[in-house]
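Protein in question reproduced for absentees:

***
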Amino acid sequence: MIYKVYYQETKQRNPQRETTKSLYLEADTEVAARVLVEDNTKYNIEFIEPLEGNYLDYEQKNPEFQLTEFNQ
C-alpha cells in the first residue's frame, strides 16, 4: 500500500502547518511505514495517511508525486 507521510524536518520545533512537508512510500502497514521513516531520517512524523482508490489517483497526478525508497 502507498502511504503519504506528513512530517517536519526537525524534532526540535513544534509542528507548524506552514513548514509541514510530505513524502510517499510503499509499505505493508502504517506501522511499517513509520518504522521506515524513523529508522532512515530525523524527521518528526505528524501523520501517516494510507492512499488508495481515488485518493491515490489524485495524488499520482501531482507532478511532485514520487515514491521514496530507503536503502536497507
